[in-house]
């Protein structure tokens, strides 16, 4: 679970469809790397694109932002939980040094500079007023996200373990320990398969909208 800067690209055709059009959601989804713009959870953790929302960064219900309702620069891909917690909350315009309660713009600020994740506890913390505000308001330390983050670090550790096993097998075979070498190879092969599967689960989008649309016979 990693945050990164959301690179916005203008697309007048997509923008003309309006924020409720599924093509807009699909566009924002790719732009956002299939992750929630706020908590960075992958869509697969919550059931894919159907469960995710089109988020209005500057809330459309505030009269001063009503004109941004369909503006792609104001739209992001977000999980339903963050979207509900944020609702129409807008404490004020963000400041450069994140010194006030606010939501820094995900297309100009890389959120990985706002938040730090503890590898051992899975908890998110942040050094800035804006980080603390978002962590509290969007409940970034909810139990489900803590588990997701721990799983992320475990998957990384398993990948490294597989590399270590390969070295170990090499050493055992060179030194004549063929049976132990074979056993460890078996274990490693299985481990590699499991790790790959776990990685794929997070990398491959669960379902496209076209996959889940009712087919007409
Ligand atoms: Zn989220």
Task: Please characterize this protein's 3D structure.
By secondary structure, the chain is mostly helical. The protein has helices at 12-16, 22-31, 80-86, 129-137, 143-174, 178-203, 209-212, and strands spanning 53-56, 75-78, 116-117, 124-125. It has one domain. It has 7 helices and 4 strands; from the N terminus they run ααββαββαααα. A hairpin with a 6-residue loop joins strand 3 and strand 4. The longest helix has 32 residues, at 143-174. The chain is globular, with a radius of gyration of 21 Å. The structure holds zinc ion. Zinc ion binds next to helix 3.
Provide a compact summary of the structure.
It contains 7 helices and 4 strands. The protein has 217 residues and is mainly alpha-helical.
**Run of helices and strands:** HHEEHEEHHHH
Task: Give the integer mean of the pLDDT values.
Answer: 90
Total number of strands: 4
User: How much helicity do the residues have?
Assistant: 40-55%
* Distinct small-molecule ligands in the complex: zinc ion
Any key phrases for this structure?
43% helix; mainly alpha; 217 residues; binds zinc ion; 4 strands
Task: Describe how the helices and strands are arranged.
Elements: H1 12-16, H2 22-31, E1 53-56, E2 75-78, H3 80-86, E3 116-117, E4 124-125, H4 129-137, H5 143-174, H6 178-203, H7 209-212
Helix pairs in contact: 5-6
